[in-house]
Amino acid sequence: MLLKHPLISVQEAAKRLQVGVETVRRYIRSGTFEVAKVGRQYLIKPETVQTFLDKQFETTKATRKPPVSEPIDPEGHPQAEQETK
Known about the structure:
Helix content is 42%, strand content 12%. By secondary structure, the chain is α+β, with helices and mostly antiparallel strands. A 3-stranded antiparallel β-sheet has the order 1-3-2. It is elongated, with a radius of gyration of 22 Å. It starts with 7 loop residues before the first strand and ends in a 22-residue tail after the last helix.
């Protein structure tokens, strides 16, 4: 079975994610990235890195607070606007 894309190294994954090599190694140890170990080197499918990035964007989008369009109290509840006469 041939792969669609060649596997990438830990260094290449770090470059694509714009993080340090040790961060990628932590992802590997924690099971976040599935890898193949060839000799002393870990190899990662490029799709694994892309899937990880996609999940990060989804998480960021879901946790982002909408812009505040009306005043809110300290507990986060909308406040009724006070009318001026």
